Amino acid sequence: MRQSTKILAALLLLGYLWTSAEGMAVMSVDLGNEFMKIAIVKPGVPMEIVLNKESRRKTPVVVAFRNNEREFGDQAMNTAVRYPANAFLYLKDLLGKKVDNPVVKHYQQRFPYHNIVPSDTGTVMFQIDEVHLRSPHSKPSFGNTKYSVEELLGMVLQEAKHLAEGFAEQPISDVVITVPPFFNQAERRAMNLAAEYAGLKLLQLMNDNSAVALNYGVFRRKEFNGTAQHYMFFDMGATSTIVTIVGYQLVKTKEGSYTETNPQVTVKGVGFDRDLGGLEFQLRFRDHLARLFNGQKKTSSDVFQDKRAMGKLFKEAGRVKNVLSANTDHFAQVESLLDDQDFKAKVTREELEEMSQDMLDRVAKPIEDALKVSQMTMGEIKEVILMGGGTRMPKVQELISKATGRQELGKSINTDEAAALGAVYQAAFLSKGYRVKKFLVKDANLYPIQVEFERQKEGEAVKTIKRTLFGRMNPYPQKKVMTFNKHTEDFNFRVNYGDLSYLDEVDVKNFDSLNLTKVTLKGVKAAHEKHSKDAESKGVKAHFRMDESGILTLDRVESVYEKAPPPEEESTLAKLGNTISNFFSGKSEEEGNVEDSKEKDDKGKENGGEKSTDSKDDTSEQDKKEKKQSDKAKEEEKEKKEEKTENKKDTKAQKEEVKNEKKEEKTDQKKDETPKEGKADKGEQKGNETTDKKDGDAAKNETAEEKKPPKPVTIKEEITPESEILDLLPPSEDAVKASIKVLEKLKQKDEDKIKLQQAHNALESFIFDAQDKLYQEPYEQASTEEERSMLREKLTAASDWLDESDVTNTIQEFKDQLKTLKDATYALYERVREHSERPKALEALKDMLNYTDMFYKGVKNLTESLDDQPYTEVEVTTLEKLINETKSWQKTNIKAQKDTPLTDKPVLLVEDIAVKIRALDREVKYLMNKAKTFVPKKPVKPKNETETPGNETKIETPNNETKSEEEGPAEGQDSTTPGTEEPVEQPPPPTEEENKNNEEKSELPESEETDKTGKEDKSSESKETDSKKDDEHIEL
User: Fold this and answer.
1) What pLDDT score was predicted for residue 696?
2) Which residues lie across from 853 on neighbouring strands?
3) Which region among 165-179, 348-362, 999-1013 has the lowest average model confidence (pLDDT)?
4) Which domain-ending residue is among 315, 344, 360?
5) 236 and 297 together in one domain
6) Is the model's pLDDT at 3 over the cut of 60?
7) Could you tell me the Gene Ontology terms of the biological process aspect for this record (predicted)?
8) Which is the most buried residue in 3, 436, 516, 671, by most CB within 10 A?
9) Helix, strand, or coil here: 98?
10) Greater pLDDT, 1018 or 114
């Protein structure tokens, strides 16, 4: 019972581990504005880039709608050329933006054919043109023809999830998505919403520069030490340029009760330009090509006014721009660009650089900004590493070298895949299914965040107090607590962006609102009235958290009180110290003090957890002086305590010396210094020293306990905060559920489309294959002309139906058509298959009969030569009968099949031949297995022979001498040795288990039995004389 329980538990555990491994894969999406790269980690596949349907390692970030269908990737890009208004590209910059945002207006200038309308919350929504959504035979189009940016990006992420699951061959939900470091709070929340629409569990929004730095460091962890090594990453992507300075070093972190050393990458400085990227180069080059075409005067139409023609030129401009990175000139050409007129023109790299000179002049500024904010110089930077497709332009590399003073620029990482691989490493680290070597990442908050609240003193006007919550370049994740210690009534405060004067005016305008949240606290007054009578207020504490994604949240608010313990008599020295301390410090704790949360983890402690009061307008000089005096008094008191401690140590040392000199004398005179009894065998001196040390420590601890005052009782009253988001209103719960439902319907529609296409392809393939086979020789021989004509008619009718089918036909209709054709051709296909496979089957039967016949003859000879036969007469007869019957059946059916026309149903079937082969094989295997387990009967011994316990056979001679004879002498020994044996008692009869063991031994080879028995006999008789040992070595 217990054994079966263990087996069941093991099977359940194995099933659990199997199902867990099936769902342990994680993924990352490096979501750029132009392309996305997807990476996965699953058991047995460490950090692999996912291939899309076209087997490419990067996929265009575009979604298109046409013919009542949704398209992604290259297919959507083709639609973008023909129907630009129905394809949506470069969406990431529109996340978290309202319609009147400068970024949205700039987007409309670049892509004027999109119809942008405001949503209920004021964000961007695209109105899709109905004209190109439906085909002539289509059903009503999508129920919702307005999609928000978050929904469109949710569709892209949904497609990324679909590709990753197909590549990993298992479902995936956990993901890390990369975002630019300059994304603000609204943009990050919008990306989080898009992931929710896609059905993904977001582990982290990781800054793409940090992901690149992590990927770079993971493969070079052995190169880092305790001294920071600084690197600069220059990333020019499709729409922006980011320069990041990071430091790598080994740091010690505490994990539970032990300390370990791990590498860490810390973001030191970031500079960026949100509009400097490859897209702007491509758009300017597109306009240049359009002007060249208009200058050729091939048509009177203006190419700028034709959306499709401009879409073709945009695609060609991107291709030529990439070619010019490696060549100085190239031809741009587009067939049938406008009014059936082709376009071809020679362009040079110099022309591209001249038309983009103002953009090239901005390359150096992000480098300067990153150095400035990190307070570093280029001399401290070990290497400059290039990232992004824009850095492939020779002129850009030249300007980077000039700005950094480096002739050699680092190109040691994959510019396309580094961010995706770094993010998927972080995903594996954050998931619970993998053990990953730790590589800590300390990201930085680019925009300072502050808290504003109002305070009014008696006789003074209302004053607005500002406290910095998270400063510029503060590391995160991190928790902080802000204390409001002057408020006893219900109040409110605002969370806003801090000083953004270091940003350009254009970048500041990109923030729809500098106000983030308004928080109203209700219940402060009630809590104060409840606890103020018997407890001291310690203020209202608001607990803030900036998580791994850089999103700020208010975890909780509580009103804290301390209730004094029962009073105790204080010593004179303690009273004097408290009086001095109160005189210098008082109780002037500053309002709105910000400090790191004590509840944060080790990561938070390393994130710069010093007490910070970032106030610039509410600290008086008098307060500073009082604080100085208080600190000075505390230092003096600390020094006095240290002096007392040293004196005590010196006194104790002197006493130890005296004891060593007079170790034989008793020390009963000294109070509280009498040593306790120790172990006598360890020496009197050592026992006395140990005991004195224990007594001294105990006395010291008792003194400390006496001095330590009792702790006050802390009372925490939860305050319910009411938060109102000010920068970007989130959609309601109902709206979120509706959007998820819409995306699920579109996903189901895509899956149905794939199934419909598969059914269509299966029917089409069968028709083409069958029509071709009807003219092949094997099928013509196996069918009549009448039968072939009938099949051709059915195939032609099915082909016509297929040509007339459209999207209105269902999957079942295609399956029914295919089943009808398979039923009609089944008889012909079976005849051809039988005729083609029969010769091989007959050859296999012939070989089996020959083998069985030889085996039968061997069995026959064996049974005639042995007295003890392994087989019975019935078994031998049965084998003989089976052979004869099979030969007769073979002969009869081969003759009948030859007389049967190929167009008729075969008489001799391949399956019948296989049955005969299996019957012969089964009978032969049975007899062979029986021979392996056969044990011959033991021979009957003569009456004048007796067997001794040592397996000796004693033979009585006429002279009454006893002769020892071995059945099989061991190698290197005499067969017999003369001597006289003492009488030995007969052993008891062997048990069933011993008989079984003997039978198993009988099956062993002779040499193995000899060796094994010889060893056992030698071991058991090792105490006898040498001559007797020789007698004992007898084989069984």
Assistant:
1) 52
2) none
3) 999-1013
4) 360
5) no
6) no
7) endoplasmic reticulum unfolded protein response
8) 516
9) strand
10) 114
- Model confidence over 920-962: pLDDT tens digits? 999 999 998 988 888 777 766 665 555 554 444 444 444 444 4
Average pLDDT of 88-108?
93
For the chain, what percentages of helix, strand and coil (3-state, to nearest 5) are there?
Answer: 45, 20, 30
Domain harbouring 71, CATH code: 3.30.420.40
Q: Within a 13 Å sphere around the CA of 566, how many CA atoms are in the beta-carbon half?
A: 0
Pick from 968, 935, 937, 939: nearest CA to 951: 968
Helices of type H across 982-1035? 992-1002, 1006-1020, 1026-1032
> From residue 197, how far is each of 734, 740, 742, 865 by CA, in Å?
13, 5, 9, 84
368 and 354 share one domain = no
Residue 965 has pLDDT above 50, yes or no: no
Q: How many CA atoms lie within 13 A of 26 on its CB side?
A: 26
Confidence (pLDDT) at 297: 87
Is 351 domain-assigned? yes
Which has the higher per-residue pLDDT, 409 or 707? 409
Instruction: Look at residues 875, 682, 902 and name the one whose alpha carbon lies nearest to residue 782.
Output: 902
221, two tokens: 């962890």
The pLDDT of residue 1014 is above 50 = no
176 near 28, Cβ under 8 Å? yes
Signed CA dihedral, 974, 976, 979, 982: sign only: positive
What pLDDT was estimated at residue 673? 42
- Domain end (from 408, 442, 476): 442
| 529/610 same-domain check | yes
Q: How confident is the model at residue 532 (pLDDT cuts 50, 70, 90)?
A: confident
pTM: 0.72
pLDDT score of 685: 46
Residue 683 located in a structural domain: no
Determine the Cα–Cα distance for residues 119 and 586; give it in Å rounded to an integer: 56
Q: Is the dihedral of CA 146, 149, 150, 155 positive or negative?
A: positive
**pLDDT above 90 (res 427):** yes
Q: What is the C-alpha to C-alpha distance for residues 865 and 870, in angstroms, rounded to an integer?
A: 12
Out of 183-192, 775-784, 1005-1014, pick the least confident. 1005-1014
| In a domain? residue 627 | no
Q: Where are the beta strands (DSSP E) in 237-328?
A: 241-255, 258-273
First to last CA, the chain: 40
The answer on pLDDT for 989 being more than 60 is: no
Taken in order 842, 848, 851, 853, is the CA torsion positive or negative?
negative
pLDDT score, position 171: 93
In a domain, residue 417? The reply is yes
What six digits make up the tokens of 1019? 């071991």
Q: Are 164 and 45 in contact (CB under 8 A)?
A: no
Distance separating alpha carbons of residues 670 and 692, to the nearest angstrom = 12
Give the tokens for residue 389.
């497709």
The verdict on 319 and 426 lying in the same domain is no
Confidence of residue 530 (pLDDT cuts 50, 70, 90): confident
- Kindly give the residue spans of alpha helices, DSSP state H, lying in 663-732: 684-707
pLDDT for 804 beyond 50:
yes
How high is the pLDDT of residue 678?
A: 41
Between 53 and 532, residue with greater pLDDT: 53
Cβ atoms within 10 Å, residue 408: 8
Q: What is the C-alpha to C-alpha distance for residues 966 and 124, in angstroms, rounded to an integer?
A: 104
Q: CB neighbours of 1006 closer than 8 A, spacing ≥ 6?
A: none
- Is 466 found in the same domain as 435? no
Residues 906 and 763 in one domain: yes
Other C-beta atoms lying within 10 Å of the C-beta of residue 537: 18
Q: Are residues 550 and 427 in the same domain?
A: no
Strand partners, 734: none
State whether 432 and 451 are in the same domain.
no
* Cβ burial, residue 335 (10 Å; 0-12/13-18/19+): exposed
